[in-house]
Design goal:
With 181 residues, the protein is of the alpha/beta class. Helix content is 20%, strand content 11%. It has two helices and six strands, in the order βββββαβα. Strands 1-3 form a two-stranded parallel ribbon. Helix 1 links the parallel strand 5 and strand 6. The longest helix has 24 residues, at 157-180.
């Protein structure tokens, strides 16, 4: 009988929890596989290669290495949060725009990794920030993708960036599928 549902428990920041890695004693130099005995996914991970922070993934049970899941994010805090000290950014933060620009560089980096790994499930993480976050209202650290009203908000740019990134990802996956046919 074919499986109809995939049900997993979510955890967070498995990039910083080597106990759960397939190779817990190795310093990562790329995406980190979660040990097969742990049947959960990470709903948010960091991705900052300069600090050896890489997102985690699982392998589809019974496959020959097919990646089951990967979570992408617009921005991720460093291992000690956002401020080091307040209000400066921590060096291991993955900022939304990076260097004060307008391109969603962290999302772009995650999506490039997704194109490489081709996970069966791609999760785009985001939090609704109904209350002011610890770092304050800051579009460079927020991973909130819901539209906000101008002039105090940052409009529809995050939602639009996710839409564009997913469309490009789908196009890439479809192109690879038809090349292999």
């Amino acid at each position: 009988m074919d499986a109809k549902y995939t049900i997993r428990i979510d955890a967070g920041y498995l990039d910083s929890q080597p106990t759960f890695w397939a190779n817990p004693n190795e310093q990562p130099n790329g995406p980190i596989q979660i040990a097969p005995r742990y049947d959960f996914w990470s709903v948010v991970d960091r991705y900052k290669p300069a600090f050896s922070l890489y997102p985690t993934y699982n392998i589809v049970p019974g496959s020959e290495g097919e990646v089951e899941n990967l979570t992408a994010s617009i921005a991720t805090a460093g291992q000690n949060g956002w401020g080091c000290p307040q209000p400066a950014y921590c060096p291991d933060d993955a900022l939304r725009f990076g260097n004060g620009g307008t391109r969603y560089v962290t999302l772009e980096n995650f999506m490039a990794l997704a194109e490489q790994l081709q996970p069966r499930f791609l999760i785009v993480d985001q939090f609704n920030e109904f209350a002011q976050p610890d770092e304050g209202w800051n579009p460079d650290t927020s991973d909130d993708s819901e539209p906000t009203l101008q002039p105090d908000g940052w409009g529809f740019s995050a939602l639009q960036a996710i839409h564009v990134a997913i469309a490009a990802y789908r196009h890439s996956i479809e192109a690879r599928f038809f090349e292999g046919s």
